[in-house]
Amino acid sequence: MAPTAGAISALRPLPLDAVRLEPDGLLGQWQERNAAASLPHCVVRLEESGALENVRRAAGQGDRGFTGMWFADSDVYKTLEAAAWRLSDPAADDRLRDFVAATAALLIKAQQDDGYLNSYFTTVKPDLRWQELDWSHELYCAGHLIQAAVAAARAGAAPELMTVARRLADLLVERFGPGGTDGVCGHPEIETALVELYRETGHRPYLDLARRFVDLRGHGLLGDGRFGPAYFQDHLPVREAGEVTGHAVRQLYLLAGVVDVAVETHDTALLDAARRLWDDAFHTKTHLTGAHGSRHRDEAFGDPYELPPDRAYAETCAAIASLHWNWRMLLATGGHRYADEMERVLYNAVAGATAVDGRHFFYSNPLQVRTGHDGSDEDAPGQRLPWYSCACCPPNLARLMASLHGYVATTDDNGVQIHLYGAGTLRSTVRGADVEVTTRTAYPWSGRIELAVTATTPEPWTLSLRIPSWCDGCTLQVDGDVVAADPTDGYLRLTRSWGTPTAVVLDLPMPARLVAPHPRVDATRGCAALTRGPLVYCLEQTDLSEDVLLEDVRLDASAPVHVDEHAGLPHIPVTLTAGGTVRRPPTPGLYPAYPTTADRDDAPPRTALTAVPYFLWGNRDPGPMRVWIPVDHTG
Amino acid sequence: MAPTAGAISALRPLPLDAVRLEPDGLLGQWQERNAAASLPHCVVRLEESGALENVRRAAGQGDRGFTGMWFADSDVYKTLEAAAWRLSDPAADDRLRDFVAATAALLIKAQQDDGYLNSYFTTVKPDLRWQELDWSHELYCAGHLIQAAVAAARAGAAPELMTVARRLADLLVERFGPGGTDGVCGHPEIETALVELYRETGHRPYLDLARRFVDLRGHGLLGDGRFGPAYFQDHLPVREAGEVTGHAVRQLYLLAGVVDVAVETHDTALLDAARRLWDDAFHTKTHLTGAHGSRHRDEAFGDPYELPPDRAYAETCAAIASLHWNWRMLLATGGHRYADEMERVLYNAVAGATAVDGRHFFYSNPLQVRTGHDGSDEDAPGQRLPWYSCACCPPNLARLMASLHGYVATTDDNGVQIHLYGAGTLRSTVRGADVEVTTRTAYPWSGRIELAVTATTPEPWTLSLRIPSWCDGCTLQVDGDVVAADPTDGYLRLTRSWGTPTAVVLDLPMPARLVAPHPRVDATRGCAALTRGPLVYCLEQTDLSEDVLLEDVRLDASAPVHVDEHAGLPHIPVTLTAGGTVRRPPTPGLYPAYPTTADRDDAPPRTALTAVPYFLWGNRDPGPMRVWIPVDHTG
After folding, report:
1. Cis status of the peptide bond prior to A560, with omega within 30 of 0
2. Rounded to whole angstroms, how far apart are CA atoms B535 and B575?
3. Where in the numbering of this chain does the Non-reducing end beta-L-arabinofuranosidase-like GH127 middle domain appear (chains A, B) (predicted)?
């Protein structure tokens, strides 16, 4: 049965241990790299940056002054959350277990008698507790602590973290709950955290407080700040807002919380508001890579169709937040488009933020870097950096990757739905019967997905397989027989008895595709982008001959694009090869008469263009890159 | 004789009273509006904003706390400078004279015993004087005071201002001169101001200090700040820099000072550095309107060819600074391209910053405003505002407009050069003889320029008339006879005896022209812009029928563009009419397959497109606007 559009909670997440991703697939490789490299790297950097020392100071240990951002506690909590998710794997490193235990012990000491916990305010501004909610990030940090505790609880680790989190949450309920202060945090996060805490504990006041935070937002409690109230999404109540605005991470974290509150309080009007904002975000303000944010000044969404590839802010945390929001929309509605966007943002914006070594990260993820790019500072670095003075992104990546297996599939009363394809095994129950789906696939390098399905019951149930929106002409075999593959609402729904082990082979054809920008997107007019399957491709200067500048390359959109699985580039299993031309600019003048001389040159030199997956760019020689390639209209 | 490329000081400015612009021409109208509306408005706003009150407090009058930006003194000084220029006109309002006298009296009182003068540091941070040069703007404010005093001296007004300025300048020489502190200001301005003071006083230490500030810059004295040392142009000495970088106003003010120092110290190497940076700025980083700055975050130049029309920062002060810099380059070299850029920036970026009422101003001057633009805050307002919390631009416009007559012509040993055409009269001397050139013209609405030339000597001298780079096929008549019009290096040079009054008629044909962006400019690819003479034109939503969005309009580049002098739009003497089509977007999807459905629709509705001068946009109904119009390639 297809989920009903208006339903709340159409799908349910699987338990943490239901899915295991294997390292012979890309998703499993990412998880493994995260465990082996990124997570230990974060732990080291927490120490080096002083973030852990700040907490020690609040715990009465050490006397170094506060260092780093005033919300650096959140780096600790996000790393703690990532470690907790990882601890659910028996193969987790003992040092990680030690880190969690030691940090939990530290937090117990740093927590004040009344439950308050924030190393910056405790040690630097004790008199201003709760007085600067617009920029203080106190509730934001509290939210990340709560998320860490929820993760630990689900992973069966460090139960003392839940005690710390609940003491803090109880303080929040007392202070900000009904009858308490009317206040909201300048940076959303507490909303979704409180709902998760409610789910874990069943304690209703947490949910009520989350709902209160959602409802109080949009009434000007935060003031104008530096960028106006829309920056904080405090200009309009979310139920009335028609557009995503302001700081992209704030907006997207808020919307994750909004859906959580809507689902748990059965508030269809609130979910409708989220749907409306989703339409605005994904129809007018999303980069091809799934990234969000078009302005560096306030790390913000821009106007509709303002999608500059070069100055895309496209913050890593916003990409993660988009995945979180879409996941919640998917659970609430079952709509395939949310899973499509999860896939897009995961394989492009999120994946591209981490270097192949797992120890260097992007904060901003532009779709173009020019020759002569001033990439020396943290605003838009030309290559991934090991850490940032505002280090929100690296540990955010760590917590997402450590919990990635939780996002690939869901369940409902009728069966199991697979949304993201990765090699691994899913074990769940459907109406009391054990079911198991083992997936073998080289996705996204190949569109062939082999599933072995079995169940402890002959009762029929439905295995739903997402057919990505980019896919035309998928084919299906069941036990070797070709069967009709007609997706409904974005899913192939196979309803049958799986009592006998069954081999299902889904084939998603993955030719190279050219996509165009919407005609209202000014910044990429006259360009096309190369994609294959869920992957956006890009050109890098390093793949061009030395005498050709990336700026002067044009795409011959009429030439076939070849898929090459044997290009032999390091870390890059599949490249695309397109036809192109080189249009050397005629004069130094910026504004020649129309048409330009370059347009009139009808025999430009031809060149083969090698495109690599966007998420792997910048892993060889750092240099110019572009996703959107100008099309040679006369070529 | 054409000026030699390597010469220093090829041309000389005329005395302040040499040129009088008449209000039957546009330049004269701007000056009149400035005197009647903008300048009195600035005086009122100085009071309302507290900027004058700050100075009163420093003078021991009143006890209100400091309000506004810490560099608000500069608003006072710039208004004072504007008023001083205006006082050179006998028709100046007595209230303006009173303002200058009262403000000068106030500054005498506010100045400290040792000559220090800065109301913020005196009243708020007395212990930090000169300690925060990176952001303090102390030397910047000092520079504007000096500029005001120089203006007053040249206008023969308020000589006590020169005393105040010299006391402060002498303190700077003592503190920062040879043997003193190595320091530079985070915001250049003092450099050009000190050279001007040297020119006015002949006191060499002022020039030496200006040179020292130029030479000390680029050695990291300012630290990293928030945006890195390139923001302040402190990453490389100007003699080594190959690119304009960072905050555009800072960079351009610095370069004005650099040329001043180069000219007065006969430093050709330093002038070469300015030439090199000019090439970078004007070949890769200048908007079609002559504006500079592509990034809002740090109000900065972007990478080469990063020229977004929508997020053009294009600060009004940067446009003014470009005019100042180009003027100095013109004087130093005689090169026509500098006068071309003066004209471009004056008639577009500078002129557009002021509303027709003279009392509303843009801070940022984008080349596109979208439907749905979030124009509510000061960052990129959708319409001109009466004042800004950082109010640098309005009084900067006032001082430029009040001194505009000083920029239209120059002299050298051989004659007189006219660079900007405005109705009015020029009186000067050439080799001891009086010469007079009276200009009648409706420029830029018409390209016909009628000059009446006379001299008190039969000795031949050269009248040079700039032929703008946009002009093809100019014609010339002398006393009714058509004569050959062959410009050399951008100027028609008429060498003859002018002892008998002579009628010269120069005709610069002004058809509508389509210009293209350089092929490396990504943000406006596939677009053309309409221009006529020096004016850039734009489309406004208000001129489209209600059911057509500006975003969906396409230009038919093959259709003729008509010049209409009778469109009857308020304030707009000449409109252009082009052929266009309407391409309604096919689907809500942001990234359809290439080519888009819109491209395939071969019979889009046609529409006539009315274009208005960019500098007059936003004077009717506020709404979307665009300079660069997508070309319908299939239309």
Report:
1. no
2. 11
3. 416-510
Q: How confident is the model at residue B379 (pLDDT cuts 50, 70, 90)?
A: confident
Question: What is the 8-class DSSP label of residue A252?
Answer: H
Rounded average pLDDT over B620-635: 87
Main-chain dihedrals φ then ψ at residue B268, nearest 5 degrees: -70, -30
For chain A, report the end-to-end CA distance as a whole number of angstroms: 50
Q: Which of A111, A17, A125, A110 is nearest to A55 (CA)?
A: A110
Q: What is the sign, positive or negative, of the torsion defined by CA atoms of B237, B243, B247, B249?
A: positive
Task: Return the closest-CA partner of residue A535 out of A492, A486, A572, A507.
Answer: A572
Q: How far is Cα B330 from Cα B342, in angstroms, rounded to an integer?
A: 9
Task: Count CB neighbours of A228 within 10 A.
Answer: 19
Average pLDDT over residues B561-584: 94
* Over residues A352-363, mean pLDDT: 98
What pTM was computed for the model?
0.96
- The answer to whether A392 is a known catalytic residue is yes
Whether omega for the bond prior to residue A444 falls within 30 degrees of 0, making it cis, is yes
Q: Chain B contact for A529, CB < 8 A? A: yes
Of A310, A525, A527, the CB nearest to B630: A525
Q: In this structure, which long-range contacts are made by residues A582-589, counting pairs with CB atoms below 8 Å and at least 24 apart in sequence? A: A582/A548, A582/A552, A582/A553, A582/A554, A582/A606, A582/A607, A583/A552, A583/A553, A583/A554, A583/A632, A583/B519, A584/A552, A585/A552, A585/B518, A585/B519, A585/B520, A588/B279, A588/B283, A589/B283, A589/B518
| pLDDT bracket for residue A270 (50, 70, 90) | very high
B628-630/B527-532 β-pairing: antiparallel
- Give the residue-averaged pLDDT of B379-390: 93
Encode pLDDT of B246-277 as tens digits: 999 999 999 999 999 999 999 999 999 999 99
How many angstroms away from the CA of A369 is the closest CA of chain B?
Answer: 9
Residue located via tokens 């869901």: A410
Chain A residues within an 8 Å CB radius of B304: 370-372
pLDDT digits (tens, 9 = 90+) for B505-518: 999 999 999 999 99
Domain architecture of chain A: domains with CATH: 414-507 (2.60.40), 512-630 (no CATH)
**Residue-wise pLDDT tens digits, B611-620:** 999 999 999 9
Is B514 within 8 Å of A594 when comparing Cβ atoms?
Answer: yes
- Residues of chain A contacting residue B583, judged by C-beta atoms under 8 Å apart: 519
**A521 vs chain B: nearest CA distance in angstroms?**
8
Q: Encode pLDDT of A578-599 as tens digits.
A: 999 999 887 778 999 998 655 5
| CA A502 to chain CA centroid, nearest Å | 33
pLDDT of A587: 72
**Angle, helix A39-49 to helix A393-402, in steps of 10 degrees:** 150
**Which of A3-17, A55-69, A152-166, B233-247 has the weakest average pLDDT?**
A3-17
Q: List all residues of chain B from 362 to 381 with a beta carbon under 8 Å from chain A.
A: 368, 370-374, 376-377, 379
Q: Which of B230, B310, B517 shows the shortest C-beta gap to A374?
A: B230
User: Residues 206-225, chain A: which have Cβ within 8 Å of B?
Assistant: none
Residue bearing tokens 């003497």: B573
Q: Are B461 and B441 in contact (CB under 8 A)?
A: no
Query: Coil, strand or helix: which one is A165?
Result: helix
The DSSP code for B286 is: B
